[in-house]
Structure formats: C-alpha cells, structure tokens
Amino acid sequence: MRASDRAYRALREDIVTGRLLPGTVLAEVEQSQRLGISRTPLREAISRLTADGLAAPHNGRGVVVTSISPQTVSDLFELRQALECKAASLAAQRGDPDVFTGLRREFENAASLIVQDEAAADPSRSGYYTLVARLDEAIDAAAANTYLTQALANVRLHLARVRRLAKDNPDRLLATAGEHATIAGAIAARDPALAAAATSVHLHKSLEHFLAATGPPG
C-alpha cells in the first residue's frame, strides 16, 4: 500500500472515531512524524480528506478537521433522503428476495446484538452496526448502480461521525432495528414504493433523534 493511502486511511479513521476532534489542525510536521511518512504523501492524504469534506482550509491556520453542526447534519440527511430512498426502491426491483428476507429476520432478532454491545461497553456498537453495514451492502449490490453506490459511500462516511454525537441508546437502537427490518421486508416483498417509504420514515426518525440530542439547526 502506498504511503499516501496508509496516511489517508489512518487519518480518516482518526477523524471518524473522534480521535482527531473538529477544529484540530492537521499540521504536516506533526502528522508526518506521527504516521512515519514524508510530507509529500501526507499532503496527498490531506487533499483526499479535504475532497471528502472531512478537512478544510481555515482562516490561515492551515487545514483543520471539519465540524459537525446541526445544520450540517440536516443538509446531510436531505442528501441521504434522495440517495437511500432511490437505492431501496431499486433494490426492491432488482434484488434477491431471499437475501433480504434473511436480513429482515436478523433485524427482528437484533436485540441480542444490542444487549451484547451494551454489556461489553462497546461505544462503537460494533455488533449491531456490522449488521446495518451488511444491509447497506446488500442494498448497494441489488441496486447495481455504481454512481449511486459511490455517492452513498461518501454520505455514510460522514454518517459514521454523526453517530458518535447522536448518543445512541438501547431504546433508540431497538427502534432502528425495527425500522431496518421493515425496509428489508419491503425489499424482499419486491415493493419499491414501500421500500422507499420505509427508508424515508427511518431517516426522518434518525434525524429527529440527532436533533433532540444536539439541538436544532441554527
């Protein structure tokens, strides 16, 4: 793997998980020493982070990690609404019903994953969100639209940061499991309109939860 790719992945992970907080200056000397690479590949990595929207130039301070405001999240969810509803609709038309029937059942039984994450004090909710990622991947594969998949990948990158701020709790996660089960069931039933509607409801409730935790857009 190229040095710039390694640096990009490391910095992206640090930003998404919150190890590099919003407003942190990505100083070339400091980061190149920390990651054990020269400044040229580091600049390439930071340029890619800027293109992703995870970093941005700021008032002569150099490049800093971007912030996540309620308005930013509202804008993100507007884009999610368009992309994810379309993807679910296409998946219902093109996907294998058996795949989504299986996923629906897993979400119907997801309480055990949520309890396990809680018992393990896992702040990333890795067990549950691995299941969510599998549903995302199945929808992407079924929709079979490369451009749509690429656009969703960038949205989900930012969503991973938003989840840290939303302060998920077991009750909300149980509710999302039911919402995801409904989405998977609609796709399995080959009902594009219901799949899109179920996705829209899930996104609306997720945004409501975030805004309740952080405050409305200013």
State the main characteristics.
218 residues, mainly alpha, two-stranded antiparallel sheet, globular, DNA-binding, transcription, GntR family transcriptional regulator, WH_DNA-bd_sf, transcription regulation
Short description:
The protein is an all-alpha fold and 218 residues long.
Major sheet, described briefly? Answer: 2 strands, antiparallel
Tell me the fraction of residues in β-strands, as a range: under 5%
Overall pLDDT level: 89
Helix and strand content put the structural class at mainly alpha
Distance between the termini: 42 Å
Helical percentage? over 70%
Unreliable runs: none
Number of strands: 2
Order of helices and strands: HHHEEHHHHHHH
How many DSSP helices? 10
Notes on the protein architecture:
By secondary structure, the protein is mostly helical. It is built from 10 helices and 2 strands, in the order H-H-H-E-E-H-H-H-H-H-H-H. A two-stranded antiparallel sheet has the order 1-2. The longest helix is centred in the middle third of the chain and has 25 residues, at 70-94.
SSE topology sketch:
Elements: H1 3-17, H2 28-35, H3 39-52, E1 55-57, E2 63-65, H4 70-94, H5 97-108, H6 111-119, H7 126-143, H8 146-166, H9 170-188, H10 192-214
Helix pairs in contact: 1-3, 4-7, 4-8, 4-9, 4-10, 5-7, 5-9, 6-9, 8-10, 9-10
